[in-house]
C-alpha cells in the first residue's frame, strides 16, 4: 500500500504541475517570446520547441527530484492510509491524459508507416547524401519529403525531379537533410505524445520556424536562395500531403510559403541576425539554481512533504 500511495501522490502532483504549466504556456508563450525575429531561425525553432516541452520537463524534474524523495524519506511506512477521492481523481485524470498522448503518438506512427510503405513499394534508390538514401517514388505521392526517425530517408517523386533543375534539386534535398539533422520528425512525434488543448498556435509557430531554419541551412548565398525559392514555387503545385511524421519542402500553409519565398528572394538584402544570447549566461543561471537547491534541499523536502500530505487525506 505504501508503494501504491507513493505512486499515486507522485502522479497526482505531476498531473497538477503539467496541466497548470501547460495552460500557462498556452496563454503567454507569444508574450514571453516577443523578439523572435532578432534571433537566428534555428535558435527560434529550438526556443519554441523548448517552451512547448517545458511543462513536461518541469513536471518530470519536480516529481523525480522533490516529490518522490520527500515521500520515500519522510512518509511513515507503518501508516496504512487509504487513497482519498482527491488523490484518486487526480491519478485517474493523469492516466487519461497519458493514454491520450500515447494513442495520438501511436496513431501518427501507424498512419505515417502505412503511407510511407505504400509510397516506397516501387521506390528506386538514386543516390545518398550525408549517408541518407534518396529514393525516387512514383504515382500520387508527395513531391519531396524526409521520412523516418531511426531509418531516415528522403523521398523524391519522379514528377518533382523532372520539373526541378540541378541546382534547385540539390538545394531542395539539402533542405530535407537539414530537417533530418535537426530531428524534426522525432520532435513531431513528441508533440503528439504531449498533446494538450490550446497548444496549436505554439506548435504551428514552431513548425514555421523549423521550415525557415531548414531554408537557412540549405543556402549560403543570394543565388542559392533564389534557386530554393524557385523550387518551392515549382513544387507548390503538387497537392499530395506528406506523412504526418515527416518533413517536406512544401508542408506549410500558403501564406507561410509566400513569406518563405519573399524572404528567400530578398535574402541578399536582409542581414543575417546576430545571436543575442550567451551560453555562459545560461550555464551561470543553471549553476546558481542548482547551488540554491543543494543548499536548501533538506528543508525543501520537508516543505514539499507537508504540502503533499493533504492529497493523501
Furnish the topology, listing elements before pairings.
Blueprint: H1 2-32, H2 41-74, H3 85-119, E1 124-129, E2 132-137, E3 144-147, E4 153-157, H4 158-163, H5 166-181, H6 184-193, H7 200-218, H8 222-235, E5 246-248, H9 254-265, H10 279-312
Strand order of the largest sheet: 1-2-4-3-5
Strand content: 5-15%
**Number of self-contained structural domains:** 1
Low-confidence parts: none
How far do the termini sit from each other? 14 Å
Major sheet attributes: 5 strands, mixed
Structural class: alpha+beta
**Number of helical segments with 4 or more residues:** 10
What general outline do the C-alpha atoms trace?
Answer: elongated
Give average pLDDT, whole number.
86
Order of helices and strands: HHHEEEEHHHHHEHH
- State the share of residues found in helices, binned by percent: 55-70%
Q: Got a strand count?
A: 5
Whole-number radius of gyration?
A: 24 Å
Amino acid at each position: 500500500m505504501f508503494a501504491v500511495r507513493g505512486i499515486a501522490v507522485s502522479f497526482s502532483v505531476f498531473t497538477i504541475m503539467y496541466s497548470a504549466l501547460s495552460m500557462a504556456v498556452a496563454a503567454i508563450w507569444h508574450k514571453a517570446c516577443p523578439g523572435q525575429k532578432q534571433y537566428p531561425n534555428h535558435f527560434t525553432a529550438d526556443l519554441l520547441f523548448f517552451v512547448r516541452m517545458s511543462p513536461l520537463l518541469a513536471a518530470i524534474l519536480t516529481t523525480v527530484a522533490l516529490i518522490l524523495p520527500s515521500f520515500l524519506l519522510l512518509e511513515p511506512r507503518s501508516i496504512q492510509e487509504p487513497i482519498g477521492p482527491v488523490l484518486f481523481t487526480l491519478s485517474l485524470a493523469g492516466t487519461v491524459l497519458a493514454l491520450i498522448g500515447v494513442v495520438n503518438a501511436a496513431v501518427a506512427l501507424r498512419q505515417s508507416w502505412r503511407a510511407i510503405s505504400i509510397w516506397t513499394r516501387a521506390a528506386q534508390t538514386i543516390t545518398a547524401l550525408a549517408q541518407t538514401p534518396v529514393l525516387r517514388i512514383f504515382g500520387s505521392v508527395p513531391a519531396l519529403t524526409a521520412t523516418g526517425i531511426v531509418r531516415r530517408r528522403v523521398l523524391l517523386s519522379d514528377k518533382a525531379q523532372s520539373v526541378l533543375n540541378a541546382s534547385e534539386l540539390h538545394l531542395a534535398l539539402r533542405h530535407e537533410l537539414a530537417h533530418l539533422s535537426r530531428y524534426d520528425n522525432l520532435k513531431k512525434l513528441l508533440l503528439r505524445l504531449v498533446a494538450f488543448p490550446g497548444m496549436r498556435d505554439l506548435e504551428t509557430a514552431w513548425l514555421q520556424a523549423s521550415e525557415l531554419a531548414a531554408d537557412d541551412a540549405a543556402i549560403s548565398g543570394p543565388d542559392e536562395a533564389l534557386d530554393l525559392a524557385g523550387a518551392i514555387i515549382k513544387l507548390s503545385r503538387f497537392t499530395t500531403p506528406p506523412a504526418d511524421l515527416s518533413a517536406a519542402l512544401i508542408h506549410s500553409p500558403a501564406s507561410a510559403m509566400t513569406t518563405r519565398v519573399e524572404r528567400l528572394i530578398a535574402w541578399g538584402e536582409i542581414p543575417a541576425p546576430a545571436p543575442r544570447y550567451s551560453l555562459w549566461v545560461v550555464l551561470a543561471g543553471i549553476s546558481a539554481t542548482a547551488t540554491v537547491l543543494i543548499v536548501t534541499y533538506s528543508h525543501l523536502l520537508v516543505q514539499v512533504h507537508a504540502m503533499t500530505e493533504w492529497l493523501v487525506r
